Each structure stands twice: as structure tokens, then as C-alpha cells.
């Protein structure tokens, strides 16, 4: 029988970026916060001393979720049987204190103003017929201008290095630290883009260009350009993560308690209010109930959805009727791009940082005319120098044998003679792409697995083809002797890695019939439950989601503090 613990003001389910921000802000305001994290806590700079073990971290995923205990099932369409993902592939789910914020690359964009009012702006410019049947495009119930102060706060917490996007929304202040270094590769892209009349800018980076102390007094060090960012923790404390920013801030208040190895299996609720959560201590095997005035779901997209569904909180989405909201509008991304092979030039491509790069936004959002195009939105084109690590990077021209003498020769030759330009193509919500509970499979604790039904759509394929042609042009302008495109977009597959930019399922809006949370991330169906993260995105943009996740988390924290004083649905 579960043991009931003393009540707290706020409990968070997950302690990554969102859980850390909620904890820090609420604890600073005097609220007592308990953070429940199902992973461990060996995630600080000293724990990553000499972390450059590519096999352990980049190939065997030491910092990621153990899919033998918890995974998802997947199918392309509703008449197929979904099967469990037995190894991490298309995306990499984090686990442990800091979550994915420990092993991310650090790309930190703001979404475009167009994103937040996408339905309204698309219809105003192109008419209702631009939005095709079964695409569930909807506004977010908040504008860029309303969210901008929270973007600014997150960027100052992280100490982001960058320069303003010439095609982005207005900013209230500059980035806290200057852009990262320019390299031969990034200069080549920047110069080519300018020659083509495009508008390049430095990739907004959470790998800091210089030492920085944030407004809460937390120090972040300057990047060493070691090339071990994505899938690795930072041994220098130079990559902004929850572990070096918001979590220490929360702990210093004396109002925050972190509990690790605490796997939440249910939100307990009655008469439209949550009363707490049930969790399992995974080391002891014991069950606990943690009562709380406010329950905040701050885990990854998949777990936020799963917990609401298994707890029967909110109406599950039904793709046949279009009714319900939990699991609705699951979106991903596609990654078109071009690799250039250079015969006479060599680059120090083995050096770099997760967010060392240049960006072109001319093909993103509605920054270009879509009148004669059979899709909406676009993607940010990025040339980054994250560093070619020897196991995971082996660029060779198409047609090269996959083994033998020629393979070895070309592997050695082109290791320092390639540049890749790629997009994160936006993903629009489609009626038959959704999340629900699997009727057959359960996790190690007997809880049903989350089931993903997802495939690329005509919108995705048309956008993919268009963006690929644009990156081909840029790579030719950069002087590549041979260019190699990604080809056509096939059906979505769960196996090859693409991005960890999953979104949706608990979407934001101003209409309870088509959204799950309001613009404070507060549930319509239970006003003391807040669901924070990319699960609230009504669609996915042409960027990494973290900047927008951070901004929404700061707004949610403000809402929780307001709710703790007054209660009720927030305006």
C-alpha cells in the first residue's frame, strides 16, 4: 500500500529545464517545491570529467532513457499493429536530473511571430483553401510579443551567445554574450549566403562565447570548442544546462527538495482538482503518494502525454471523430539538406561546439512567398561545426562501397573535406498523427505504454523537396565540387536518428474544445495542474524547441505563483 507523505505547495514531475525553471521561480517566491525525477543525479560538471568517451555516450547512450524499462510503441497508421521501440533511434529521450538539457547541442531559437498566429496569418494572406483538409492548424492563444519577455528571461538565465535574427521578431534586448567564433566553414557559408541575397546570422548558442554570471548569480564558463556536446555532459560547465543554472538556484532558496529515482505513475485527482501524484521509489520498490496544492508535469513530451492518459485527466483525442485533446497534434520534423564534397580544400571539421554555426532564415516560416507552393511554413537552414567525432561521422560520396579498400581511402580523404547544410523542417499537425495508450504493451511498472501513430504527409514531402533544392543552391555557391542531396522523403521510420524535437499532445490555446492548456500552461480540466514543455506546441516550427520551451516555462511559473495566491483559471 502506498505511503502518503506530508503535503507540499508544488510538486513537479521531472527535473529538467522546465522542472528546474518552475522550481527556481516558485521557490524564490516562497513556495515549497518538491521535484520528482525518475533518474539519478550524477549530472554535474565534475561528474563529466574526462567525458570524451564516444562509444559510451554517443553510441551506447549512457545518459538516455533505458528502453528496456520504459519505451513507446509505434506505427505509421491506425490499421497497423504498433510495436515497441526496443532501442533508441529516431529521437533520444533523456533521463536523470537535468534531462535532455544535459546532453543537448545548445541551439536556442525564438519561434517566429508567424508561428503563434499561424492559422490567422495564413488565411489572411493566402485564403482558407491554403490549409488543406485534415491539417489541424490553429493559433496558440498567445502572441510572440506577449511571450517575448519570457524569451528574454530564459536567454539571460542561459547567458546565450548570439546576434539578432534579421528576419525574426523584435527583441527587447541583445543576447547576453557575443556570438561564438567564426571558422573557415562558417565564414564560407556566411559569405555565400550574402552573395545570394540571403540574411545569415550566428546560430544562437548555449555554448557560451565567454564567461558569464546570470541574474541569479550562477556562473557559466566559456566554451572550449572540444566537439563533445550533443549526447555528452559538459565537463567545463560551459554549456548552459539546468544543472548549472536553475537547479542550483532552486536549491539555494531552501524551499526546494529534489527526490531522485522517483518514477511517477499516476496523477491523483477528484472533482476537477489534482490532489497529488503517486510515485515508485525505483531503488526501494516502494510506492508513495505526494500530496500537493499544485501538480506540474515537467517531463518530456511523451511522459506528459502518458501520465495524463493513464490518469484519465483530460479527454483523449479520437482521430475518427476529431474530438478530445490529449494526444492531439503530435508533430515531429523532417531534416532535408545537402552535403558538399571539396577536392582541394580541407577543414578542421573535427573541432567545434554543439551550437557553433550560421543560420539562414529566408526559407523559414512565412519569410518567403507560398502563393504558388503546395505547403506552408519552412525551415531554418544551418551550417554548424559541431565537430566530426570518429565513430559517428564517416562522410563519403554516394556510390562508395560500405567496406573495403575504396571505402577506407575515401573515408580518410573526405573526413576533412565535407560541409553539410541542413534544415529542421517545420511539422504541421495532421488529423491521423497522434498519441494514445497502447492496448497491449506495458512498462516495467505495469503502466500502459504510450503509442505513437505517425507518418510524414504530403505537406512534409512538398516542403522537404523545396527546402532541399534551396540548400543545393547554397552549397554550389559555397564552391563544393560535388553535392549530395538527401533524396526523397520516404515513410517515417522510428530507427534512424533524426531529431529529438517531438512536440504536441497537450496543446496550448484559448479554446478548451481544441486545446488542453491555456497560455499559462494551466489545464482547462483541472486548474491546479500545469503541463509545461514542447507537449504544448500546437505545431512544430523550423527550429529547435528549447527556447520556446524555456519561455513557456517562465510564463507558467508566473501563472503558478499567481494561482497559489488567488486560485481559479488564469486570464
UniProtKB/TrEMBL annotation:
UniProt keyword Hydrolase, yes or no: no
InterPro entries: FAD/NAD-bd_sf, GMC_OxRdtase_N, GMC_OxRtase_C
A single GO molecular function term of this UniProt record: flavin adenine dinucleotide binding
Annotated ranges, domain Glucose-methanol-choline oxidoreductase C-terminal: 430-553
Keyword tags: FAD, Flavoprotein, Oxidoreductase
Domain Glucose-methanol-choline oxidoreductase N-terminal: 144-334
Gene3D superfamilies the record matches: FAD/NAD(P)-binding domain (3.50.50.60)
Pfam families membership: GMC_oxred_C, GMC_oxred_N
The keyword Oxidoreductase belongs to this UniProt entry's keyword annotation: yes
Family according to the record: Belongs to the GMC oxidoreductase family.
Protein name: GMC family oxidoreductase
Organism in which the protein naturally occurs: Lederbergia galactosidilytica
Amino acid at each position: 500500500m502506498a505511503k502518503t507523505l506530508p503535503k507540499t505547495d508544488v510538486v513537479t514531475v521531472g527535473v529538467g529545464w522546465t522542472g528546474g525553471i518552475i522550481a527556481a521561480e516558485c521557490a524564490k517566491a516562497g513556495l515549497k517545491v518538491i521535484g520528482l525525477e525518475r533518474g539519478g543525479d550524477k549530472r554535474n560538471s565534475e561528474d563529466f570529467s574526462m567525458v570524451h568517451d564516444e562509444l559510451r555516450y554517443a553510441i551506447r547512450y549512457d545518459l538516455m532513457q533505458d528502453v528496456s524499462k520504459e519505451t513507446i510503441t509505434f506505427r505509421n497508421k491506425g490499421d497497423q499493429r504498433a510495436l515497441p521501440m526496443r532501442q533508441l533511434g529516431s529521437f533520444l529521450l533523456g533521463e536523470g536530473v537535468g534531462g535532455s538539457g544535459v546532453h543537448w547541442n545548445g541551439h536556442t531559437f525564438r519561434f517566429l511571430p508567424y508561428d503563434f498566429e499561424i492559422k490567422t496569418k495564413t488565411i489572411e494572406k493566402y485564403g482558407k483553401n491554403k490549409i488543406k483538409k485534415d491539417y489541424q492548424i490553429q493559433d496558440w492563444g498567445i502572441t510572440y510579443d506577449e511571450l517575448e519577455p519570457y524569451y528574454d528571461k530564459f536567454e539571460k538565465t542561459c547567458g546565450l551567445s548570439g546576434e539578432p535574427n534579421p528576419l525574426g521578431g523584435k527583441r527587447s534586448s541583445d543576447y547576453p554574450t557575443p556570438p561564438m567564433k567564426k571558422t573557415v566553414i562558417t565564414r564560407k557559408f556566411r559569405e555565400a549566403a550574402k552573395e545570394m541575397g540571403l540574411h545569415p546570422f550566428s546560430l544562437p548558442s548555449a555554448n557560451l562565447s565567454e564567461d558569464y554570471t546570470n541574474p541569479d548569480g550562477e556562473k557559466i564558463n566559456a566554451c572550449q570548442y572540444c566537439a563533445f556536446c550533443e549526447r555528452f555532459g559538459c565537463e567545463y560547465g560551459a554549456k548552459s544546462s539546468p544543472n548549472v543554472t536553475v537547479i542550483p538556484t532552486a536549491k539555494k532558496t531552501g524551499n526546494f527538495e529534489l527526490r531522485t529515482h522517483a518514477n511517477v505513475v499516476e496523477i491523483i485527482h477528484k472533482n476537477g482538482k489534482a490532489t497529488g501524484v503517486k510515485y515508485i521509489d525505483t531503488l526501494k520498490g516502494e510506492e508513495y503518494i505526494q500530496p500537493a496544492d499544485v501538480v506540474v508535469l515537467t517531463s518530456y513530451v511523451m511522459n506528459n502525454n502518458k501520465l495524463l492518459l493513464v490518469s484519465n485527466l483530460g479527454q483523449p483525442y479520437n482521430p475518427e471523430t476529431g474530438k478530445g485533446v490529449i494526444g492531439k497534434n503530435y508533430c515531429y520534423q523532417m531534416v532535408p539538406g545537402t552535403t558538399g564534397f571539396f577536392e582541394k580544400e580541407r577543414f578542421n571539421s573535427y573541432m567545434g561546439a554543439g551550437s557553433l554555426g550560421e543560420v539562414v532564415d529566408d526559407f523559414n516560416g512565412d519569410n518567403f512567398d507560398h502563393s504558388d507552393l503546395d505547403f506552408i511554413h519552412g525551415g531554418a537552414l544551418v551550417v554548424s561545426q559541431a565537430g566530426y567525432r570518429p565513430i559517428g561521422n564517416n562522410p563519403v560520396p554516394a556510390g562508395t562501397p560500405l567496406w573495403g579498400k575504396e571505402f577506407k581511402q575515401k573515408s580518410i580523404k573526405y573526413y576533412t573535406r565535407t560541409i553539410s547544410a541542413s534544415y529542421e523542417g517545420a511539422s504541421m499537425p495532421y488529423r491521423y498523427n497522434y498519441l494514445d495508450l497502447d492496448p497491449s504493451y506495458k512498462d516495467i511498472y505495469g503502466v500502459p505504454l504510450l503509442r505513437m501513430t505517425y507518418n510524414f504527409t504530403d505537406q512534409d514531402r512538398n516542403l522537404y523537396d523545396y527546402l532541399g533544392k534551396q540548400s543545393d543552391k547554397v552549397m554550389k555557391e559555397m564552391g563544393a565540387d560535388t553535392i549530395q542531396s538527401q533524396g526523397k522523403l520516404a515513410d517515417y521510420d522510428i530507427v534512424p536518428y533524426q531529431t529529438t524535437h517531438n512536440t504536441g499532445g497537450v496543446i496550448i490555446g484559448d479554446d478548451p474544445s481544441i486545446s488542453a492548456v491555456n497560455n499559462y500552461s494551466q489545464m482547462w480540466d483541472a486548474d491546479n495542474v500545469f503541463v509545461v514543455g514542447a507537449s504544448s506546441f500546437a505545431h512544430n516550427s523550423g527550429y529547435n524547441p528549447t527556447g520556446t520551451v524555456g519561455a513557456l516555462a517562465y510564463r507558467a511559473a508566473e501563472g503558478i505563483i499567481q494561482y497559489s495566491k488567488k486560485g481559479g483559471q488564469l486570464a
